[in-house]
């Protein structure tokens, strides 16, 4: 590449970076693509509100909003469903889900993409995490494993990973001059076989979570969200 072409390329890059810096960092009044009011009943599942920890409040932005329920069925199943909705400060209000999980005491392990076909909705791309932590019960230390599915919801689009969400934000800043207001959905369950010989193993826990996601997704996403 000649010196002249190199200088032109650098000018274009610097100009683009400058224009991004000048774009608004606030969300403005973008519509919300997700409903924080989780349903009380979903098929065989019933849910009750669960408190958000002080660590989570201190880690995220002051105007971050939450929706959280712990669901149970009549067969010993238990699923934690959390929605985190960013406020005006995107730097603190939306984040990698590992921050939430670490604040709850989990160590994040294996991560991979999973695509689910959701009835009455379409294709849902998600990230699946396998997490672990140790608990103390009656003076004994017990390992606990947990499966968590998450994805991000904008005012009109979905993203399966933090990197994908950041790419969409960069595009929107350059092309449209705004950010979508993002929410993050996390749905998780412990692998109960680890501490109960009659509990669910990893595969059974995975199937339980996927079936639950297929129930809850059409209930919490608004009509403005695009889907496959």
Structural write-up:
The protein has one domain. The chain has six helices and nine strands, in the order H-E-E-H-E-E-H-H-E-E-E-E-H-E-H. The protein has 228 residues and is of the alpha+beta class.
- Secondary structure class reads alpha+beta
Q: How many distinct folded domains?
A: 1
Q: Could you tell me the number of beta strands?
A: 9
From N to C, what is the helix and strand string?
A: HEEHEEHHEEEEHEH
Alpha-carbon distance between the termini?
42 Å
Tell me the helix content.
Answer: 25-40%
Main sheet, how many strands, which sense, barrel? 9 strands, antiparallel
Measured by DSSP, the beta-strand proportion falls in 25-35%
The number of helical runs is 6
**Stretches with pLDDT under 50, minimum 5 residues:** 6-23
Shape: globular
Radius of gyration from the alpha-carbon trace, in angstroms: 20 Å
Task: Provide keyphrases for this structure.
nine-stranded antiparallel beta sheet, 228 residues, alpha+beta, globular
């Amino acid at each position: 590449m000649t010196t002249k072409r190199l200088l032109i390329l650098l000018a274009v890059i610097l100009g683009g970076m400058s224009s991004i810096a000048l774009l608004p960092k606030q969300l403005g009044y973008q519509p919300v693509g997700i409903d924080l009011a989780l349903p009380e009943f979903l098929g065989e599942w019933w849910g009750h509100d669960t408190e958000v920890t002080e660590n989570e409040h201190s880690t995220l932005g002051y105007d971050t909003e939450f929706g959280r329920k712990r669901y149970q069925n009549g067969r010993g199943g238990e699923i934690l469903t959390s929605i985190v909705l960013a406020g005006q400060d995107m730097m603190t209000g939306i984040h990698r889900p590992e921050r939430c999980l670490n604040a709850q005491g989990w160590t994040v392990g294996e991560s991979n993409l999973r695509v689910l076909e959701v009835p009455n909705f379409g294709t849902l791309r998600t990230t699946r995490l396998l997490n672990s932590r140790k608990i103390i019960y009656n003076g004994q230390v017990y390992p606990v494993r947990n499966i968590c599915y998450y994805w991000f919801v904008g005012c009109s689009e979905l993203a399966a990973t933090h990197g994908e969400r950041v790419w969409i934000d960069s595009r929107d800043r350059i092309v449209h001059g705004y950010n979508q207001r993002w929410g993050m959905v996390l749905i998780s369950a412990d692998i109960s076989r680890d501490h109960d010989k009659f509990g669910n193993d990893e595969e059974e826990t995975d199937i339980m979570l996927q079936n639950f996601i297929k129930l809850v997704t059409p209930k919490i996403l608004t009509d403005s969200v695009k889907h496959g």
